[in-house]
Design goal:
Blueprint: E1 3-5, H1 8-15, E2 34-35, E3 51-54, E4 73-76, H2 82-86, H3 91-101, E5 110-113, H4 119-130, E6 134-139, H5 145-155, E7 159-162, H6 163-166, H7 171-174, E8 183-186, H8 190-199, E9 205-208, E10 215-217, H9 221-227, E11 230-233, H10 236-242, H11 245-260, E12 269-273, H12 277-284, E13 292-296
Parallel strand pairs: 5-6, 5-8, 6-7, 8-9, 9-11, 12-13
Antiparallel strand pairs: 1-13, 2-3, 3-4
Amino acid sequence: MLAAPINPSDINMIQGNYGLLPKLPAVGGNEGVGRVVAVGGSVTRLKPGDWVIPANAGLGTWRTEAVFGEEALIRVPSDLPLQSAATLGVNPCTAYRMLADFEQLQPGDSVIQNAANSSVGQAVIQIAAARGLRTINVLRGRPDIQKVTDRLKDLGAEHVITEEDLRKPETADLLKDVPQPRLALNCVGGKSSTELLRHLAPGGTMVTYGGMAKQPVVASVGLLIFKDLKLRGFWLSQWKKDHSPAEFQALILTLCDLIGRGQLTAPACSEVPLQDYQRALESAGKPFMSSKQILTM
C-alpha cells in the first residue's frame, strides 16, 4: 500500500453502523492505492510495478502490505498524483454517478448541493464544470468561510452560500441568473435538505447520499404534491452490485482522464504516516475539518 484516506464511511464501518460490514477480525479502510510487488503464475491482468485500487469496499487498506486476488483490484495509471489515486475509488465515483444517473442534465443546467466542501462536494463542482453545468454550493457557516469559498470557486463553483443565507428571501434574487436546479445532492439531512428541496425546479430530484446531521430528511407535503419532487438515494456499493466490474473500471478510467486533463484534483489533504493513525483519526473527527486525512505507508 502507498496511501489510503480516512473517509466517514470508514468510521461508520468501524462503528458497525454502515450498510456493508466485513467479517471480523478486519482491517479498516475502504479505498487507497497500492503498488504491485509480485504476482502469481496465473495472474494475467496485473504485473509488478502497476498501481492498483480496490474494486470493492471492505478490502482493508489501512496497512502496509496485503495479498489479494487480481479480481479484487483495478489498475490505474501510475503517473496519477498520489493523493488523486488514493482518493479515486469512492467520492469522485459517487459524484460522477449522481450527476449522470438521475436527471438528464445539459450544459448550462444547474445543480444545488449541501456539504459542498466535502470530498464528494469538491468532486461534484469539478465534474459539473467539466460538463458545462453550473453549481450552487451550500456550506455551514464557519470561521474560515471566505477561505473555503475562494477554494471552491477556484475549483469551478459558481455560487457559494451558507445554509443561513439560503434561508433568506433575498437569496432568490441572488440566484436569479442561474436556471432553477433540477438536481439537488444532499449529504446532510434535516433542515439543510428541506432548504435544498425548496429551491428545486418542479419535477426535480433530490439525491441523498449521506446524513451528516443525523436527522431525517423532511419534505413538505406541498412541495411533493405541487412541485412533484422526487426523493432518491445513492450508495456506490449498491451501484457496483447492479453493474458489471467492466462498467466500474470504465468509470474509473473516465475519472482518470479528467485528472489527466487537469479537470479533477484531489480534495485538500493532509498526509499522515500510518504509525500516527490515532492523530489522523482524531483530526478526521473534528468539525469544520477542511483537509482529508491520508495515511501514507
